[in-house]
Structure formats: C-alpha cells, structure tokens
C-alpha cells in the first residue's frame, strides 16, 4: 500500500467513525398560526405480540437517582472534537455550533414539560476519538465529576473501547454509539443505539442476499482474523446455516492490517483454491481486507462478491485505491436510505424545523450546502434521535426515575419515528433502533470514482 493510499485509509476510518457517531434525532414543526408544536416526543406503539410493561406506580417526582432531583435531570452530552481532528489534519467536517443545537433541542423538551415533569440540564463535553485517554477523561468527568443520570452520545474511532468506561466500569446508561459483539454484552446498564447492531445487520444482509438469489451455487467466506474471524464463526456461518446455505470454504487472512503486499500474496493462494473448488459466490467479511475484492478479481475470480460489513467502504473504495474502480464493479454491499429519502421523512423535517423556528438556523439539504458552510443536518440528527428516546422512556418511568424504570420505559416503546431513520423500533431485548436496510451494487461508471447504487428498496429487518 502506498503512503498516499495508507493515509487515505486512515482518514476514511476516522471519518466513518464520526459519521456513525454523528447520526440521530427528532424536532418540531410549525403550525399555521406560527406557533411551534413540539414533536420531540414521537408516537410509539408496542412491538406486535409483546405485552408492554405496566407503568410504574404514579408518584410525584423526587430525588430518585444520581443526576435526578424532584425538579431536574442532568444529562451528559458527549460529542467528537471536530476542531481538534481538523488541526490534526484528519478530517475537515463542519456541523455548525453543536452545543447550540443541543441546547435548542433541550430547551424544546423543557418547554414541553421536560422528562416526567423534570427540566433537563446539560453537561456538554467533547473528546478526541483518536486518543483513548481523551475518551476516558470525558467518561470520568461526566460520570464521576458531574454524576449525570445518562450520557447521550457514543464513542467512535480508535477510542471505541472507552465505551466500556461508561456502560461497564462506571455503570452509566448511554444513548448513542454502536452495539458491537466486543462491547455490548459487557454493558451493566441499559445502552441504546439508534444504529443497527453489526450482528443484526449481518443477518439481515444475508437474508436479503438470499431473497435476491445471490447465495445460489457454491459459497465461500473470506475474513480478517484480526477483526472478523469471530464474526464469521459466531454470526455469519450460523446465519447462513439457518438460511440453508452450505459453505464450501472459509478463508481467514492473518496478514497485519495495512500490509497490502502480503495480503495480495495470500489472496493469490486463496484464489487458486477458489478456482479449484468452483466457487460461485465469495462473501467478504470486510474491513482490513477491503482491497480483497480487487485482489480476487486480479486473480481471475469472476463470480459474485458480497460484502457483509457496512457498504461505506465499498462505496468509497474508488477514492481509496489506486487501482481502476472497474475492478470493484458488480460487488454487492448493504446500504441504508439515500439522503433524499432520509431528508423527506416527517421526523427529519420536524427536527430541522425546530432549529429553523427556535434558533433561526437555515437547515439545508446536505447536497445543497455551499462549500465551507455548516452541514446542520449532520449536527442535528443525533440530538433529535437521542432526545426522542430519552423522553419516550423517561416519561414512562415517571416520578421514580431510575435505571430500572427507565429500562421498563425502553421496553414499551415499540415502533418509533426517528430523524433520518426509515424504520425504527425499541423493545425488550432490542435496544438498537434502526431496522432500515437495502442492498446496493457497485457501479464503477457512477460519478468519478464509482459508488454503490441501490438494487432494492429500503426494507425493515426488525
């Protein structure tokens, strides 16, 4: 891998982590009289077939837990320090004044009665996702120094392991971040993500591939041992077995991430086996081996290539790799709703209207933002989503607000409308809200570097 490619790969890794962490929320709309109607509390229904928990006994609000008094609830807001990342030369992202966004959203919640009659107070904290120490410091400051009731915002990038400081070591509830097999099982407190968990995305992706007839014939898997071998064993192979798919071969790369020369050599060996075994379909559990697609094509594999991880890597691969984008042509990968589809959702527009009406911010479609101006959509989505979940569960918990009653509140939510999410639900045993998924296929003629183009509509995989 050349220095240029390696640098681009590092930049992409950080950007993807930021994008994953900077998503979600719900706002307010304007009535014909010019008054603002709050829509932060969304209409929810219990999941079909579920018996929703009984509401706690109605009591007047009191000092029921740390960060909760009879009059207030203190929440910690955790966001990435984009200015510091910009100074490091890693990204140049402008999401506007995010503290202003959060305060505007919280003011709207408070104007609508707060959380179970309590006014929300915010402790705002930024961290650098490149450095674990930065995330750990933010954790201690929010949970110990300020004793917040709940943290809104997750941990992304190289510092992702620090999420355990919040949900395991300090035993605090979190709304935000992404559930991963390495972290989510260790949480000792309710942890809600508005992003689909990776195991559920893997399973849903494979089911959609089967519906498209892409798993017909002889199938093999190809993973990265440093990151994905357990995903293959614990998620992908069992899911394929449930779908009635027999896997002929499972290849595991043991090449250190970034050593493209060694990876290419290993791929050539695997390609010979693939040819001998007459493999029709290769499933790449990708991340460090994102370039494995090109390696297999260069070694003559002409069958179907299916990616399992988020399709963002495939969608941007033409800008990372110095090979012709045509090598990736035809590869399939999971993807979500388009920007237009997300923008047009009622919950999205309600969120942006709140900023327009209450903060005088001109929120534009991301594709219409002039160069150098803030992308307010990117900054507003997470606050809207997280506060929607907080209010829905917190109002159910009522006067005796604590982790037990809050969990019961989460369990009763069912379907929920969230900004930028086509299908979402939260219920007992399912605390990752997003259910939206579709399949895309890489088209090297699309744009300058090629990109994924949808081949299915957005489906719900709850």
Explain this structure.
The protein is an alpha/beta fold and 462 residues long. It has 15 helices and 17 strands. The strands form five sheets. The protein has a five-stranded parallel sheet with strand order 4-3-5-6-7, sandwiched between helices. Strands 9-8-10-11 form a four-stranded parallel sheet, sandwiched between helices. The longest helix is centred in the last third of the chain and has 22 residues, at 376-397. 49% of the residues are buried. Residues 1-49 have low confidence and may be disordered.
Number of strands: 17
Structural class: alpha/beta
Mean pLDDT: 86
Oligomeric description of these chains:
single chain
Low-confidence stretches: 1-49
CATH architecture of the largest domain: 3-Layer(aba) Sandwich
The dominant shape is globular
Please write the CATH class name of the largest domain: Alpha Beta
- Largest sheet, spatial ordering of strands: 4-3-5-6-7
Portion in beta strands: 15-25%
What is the total domain count?
Answer: 2
- CATH superfamily membership of the largest domain, which one? Response regulator
Reported for the largest beta sheet, the result is: 5 strands, parallel
> Rg from C-alpha positions?
23 Å
Helical amount? 25-40%
Q: According to CATH, what is the topology of the largest domain? A: Rossmann fold
């Amino acid at each position: 891998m050349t220095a240029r490619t390696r640098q681009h790969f590092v930049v992409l890794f950080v950007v993807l982590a930021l994008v994953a962490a900077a998503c979600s929320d719900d706002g307010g709309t304007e009535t014909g009289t010019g008054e603002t109607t709050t829509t932060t509390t969304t209409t929810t229904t219990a999941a079909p077939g579920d018996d929703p928990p009984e509401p706690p006994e109605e009591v007047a609000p009191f000092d029921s837990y740390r960060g909760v008094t009879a009059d207030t609830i203190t929440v910690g807001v955790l966001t990435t320090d984009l200015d510091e990342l910009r100074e490091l030369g890693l990204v140049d992202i402008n999401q506007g004044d995010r503290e202003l966004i959060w305060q505007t959203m919280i003011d709207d919640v408070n104007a609508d009665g707060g959380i179970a009659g309590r006014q929300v107070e915010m402790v705002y904290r930024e961290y650098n996702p490149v450095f674990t120490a930065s995330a750990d410091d933010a954790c201690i400051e929010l949970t110990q120094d300020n004793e917040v009731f709940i943290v809104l915002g997750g941990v992304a990038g190289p510092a992702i392991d620090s999420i355990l400081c919040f949900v395991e070591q300090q035993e605090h509830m979190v709304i935000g971040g992404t559930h991963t097999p390495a972290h989510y099982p260790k949480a000792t407190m309710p942890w809600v993500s508005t992003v689909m968990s990776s195991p559920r995305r893997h399973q849903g992706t494979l089911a959609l591939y089967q519906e498209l007839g892409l798993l017909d014939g002889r199938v093999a898997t190809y993973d990265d041992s440093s990151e994905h071998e357990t995903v293959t064993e614990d998620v992908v192979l069992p899911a394929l077995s449930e779908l009635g798919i027999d896997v002929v071969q499972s290849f595991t790369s043991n090449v250190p991430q970034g050593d493209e020369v060694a990876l290419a050599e290993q791929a050539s060996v695997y390609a010979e086996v693939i040819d001998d075994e007459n493999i029709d379909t290769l499933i790449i559990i990708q991340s460090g081996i994102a370039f494995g697609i090109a390696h297999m094509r260069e070694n003559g594999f002409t069958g179907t290539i299916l990616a399992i991880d988020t399709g963002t890597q495939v969608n941007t691969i033409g800008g990372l790799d110095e090979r012709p984008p045509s090598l990736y042509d035809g590869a399939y990968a999971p993807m979500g709703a388009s920007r237009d589809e997300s923008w047009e959702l009622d919950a999205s527009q309600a969120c942006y209207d709140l900023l327009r009406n209450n903060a005088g911010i001109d929120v534009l479609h991301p594709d219409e933002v002039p160069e150098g101006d803030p992308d307010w959509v990117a900054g507003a989505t997470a606050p809207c989503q997280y506060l929607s979940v907080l209010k829905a569960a917190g109002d159910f918990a009522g006067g005796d607000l604590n982790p037990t009653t809050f969990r019961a509140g989460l369990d009763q939510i069912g379907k929920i409308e969230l900004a930028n999410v086509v299908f979402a639900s939260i219920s007992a045993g399912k605390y990752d809200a997003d259910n939206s998924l579709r399949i895309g296929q890489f088209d090297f003629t699309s744009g300058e570097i090629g990109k994924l183009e949808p081949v299915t509509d957005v489906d719900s995989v709850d």
